[in-house]
Design brief:
mainly alpha, globular, Growth Hormone, Chain: A
């Protein structure tokens, strides 16, 4: 099985268009890590600023809510415009915006209205990039390799974002922890985004879809049909039970993981219960990424045996156990181990959900569906941050909140598993299972 996985990765990398798309992801997400690390460090871990649960909720809502408004438009346009052009233009545009943002940070500070406005524009363009990458992937990957492709690209993409984040930490120590240092890091992120745009321009214009001629429709007509397009996309998903259930489950997961993330963030601030600072939080995030890497290695093999839906049930149940057993001690060491386990669960479930949506949804609807996916993903995180502002103390420690999170993960695993089992006789087998059975 390990040999088959390695063969699948080699086969993926043999396709020059897959390699180019993968390079766009790596460069773009490295830029994301630099950009987010610059603002994150200057805002949450600035020695001159204190952070409360309410301030954290407002910050996350400010950065993530644009996903909800831009996402639907991004999806409809990705089903009409050349996705290659979208990736090239969006990366180049956010490079230009980051240069303006860097100037605003240096002059006005990271929380000033001009800086926040520019940050919202950059985040809004991120919707086009991430949704475009997901919608384009099935155009350069065979269905039988989608699980492997998702695990490979999303995990290494997350790794690139982490490298970008840690690079911003190192540059922050080198250039200073004030606003000028954050502005200089934003300029570096702009350069990386520009590289991503150049990489995207190397892909043929129509290679990434959409596959029909609807992209030639005028822009005014495309925007006017946003609502109709979203309704059609929602109906398309609703008619495909595997994709619909997966989106509901991942939305629930995002809420509980968001609530836990805000709590963990507060634990490591100056007034937090653990108060290890940005370095301590970085170690936990590193453990989380390591767990995601492990998930990427084992998920393709396991799903060939048990299927993506059953694997989602198992990893959510595991997340409940990890939260209850390893987060509740509230020590740095236990949180490192918990980060490993929860990172595994998050990445394994995302790989499975991405694959279920890609397999179940027709290409003409993929842009809209993945934008809906991103919108649900981020609105649930914002909802979690707003709940955290009410229920999580400023030091981050709350056994009641952890109990709620653990029970929520367990309930999600149970309900998802029940629905999967009830609907299995009426739905076609997952392609990954069917392919494994035919090889057997």
């Amino acid at each position: 099985m390990e040999q088959a996985r390695r063969h699948a990765v080699r086969e993926l990398l043999a396709d020059p268009d897959f390699r180019r798309l993968f390079q766009v992801r790596l460069a773009g997400q490295a830029g994301d890590g630099l950009f987010q690390g610059a603002l994150f460090g200057a805002t949450f871990f600035n020695p001159q600023k204190a952070t409360s649960a309410t301030e954290a909720a407002v910050a996350f809502a400010t950065l993530l809510l644009p996903y909800s408004f831009v996402g639907p438009f991004a999806g409809v346009l990705l089903d009409r415009w050349s996705r290659q052009r979208v990736l090239a233009f969006s990366n180049t545009a956010r490079a230009a915006l980051l240069l303006l943002l860097a100037a605003s940070v240096a002059v006005n500070g990271p929380t000033s209205p001009p800086t926040v406005g520019l940050a919202l524009l950059v985040v809004s363009l991120n919707r086009f990039v991430l949704s475009g990458l997901s919608a384009a992937l099935p155009q350069v990957v065979e269905a039988r390799h989608l699980v492997t492709a998702n695990s490979f690209t999303t995990t290494l993409g997350t790794g690139a974002a982490t490298v970008g984040g840690f690079t911003s930490v190192g540059l922050r120590d080198l250039w200073g922890k004030g606003d000028t240092g954050a502005a200089e890091i934003a300029c570096v992120a702009a350069l990386v985004y520009l590289i991503a745009g150049g990489l995207a321009s190397r892909i043929a214009r129509r290679r990434l879809g959409p596959t029909d001629e609807v992209e030639r429709q005028p822009l005014s007509h495309a925007v006017a049909t946003v609502v109709d397009g979203l309704v059609a996309g929602a109906r398309h998903v609703h008619a495909r039970g595997q994709a619909a259930r997966a989106l509901v489950a991942i939305t629930a997961h995002r809420f509980f993981s968001g609530l836990l993330f805000v709590s963990t963030l507060l634990l490591y601030t100056a007034q937090g219960f653990i108060h290890e600072g940005f370095a301590g939080l970085g170690q936990v995030l590193t453990a989380t990424v390591a767990g995601g890497v492990v998930a990427a290695l084992v998920t393709p093999r396991i799903t060939r045996r048990v299927g993506t839906q059953r694997w989602v049930v198992l990893v959510f149940a595991g997340a409940a156990v990890v939260t209850a057993a390893l987060v509740t001690p509230y020590t740095h060491a236990s949180l490192l181990v918990a980060g490993l386990g929860l990172g595994f669960a998050a990445q394994a479930s995302k790989i499975c959900v991405d694959t279920l949506v890609q397999e179940s949804v027709e290409d003409a609807f993929r842009g809209r569906v993945f934008s809906l996916y991103d919108t649900l993903f981020n609105v649930s995180f914002v909802a979690a941050a707003l709940v955290a502002a009410v229920v999580v103390p400023n030091n981050g420690k709350s056994y009641a909140v952890l109990g709620f999170i653990a029970c929520g993960y367990a309930a999600t695993a149970l309900l998802y598993g029940v629905f999967v089992r009830l609907r299995a006789p009426y739905e076609p087998p997952e392609p990954v299972i069917a392919a494994a059975s035919s090889r057997a």
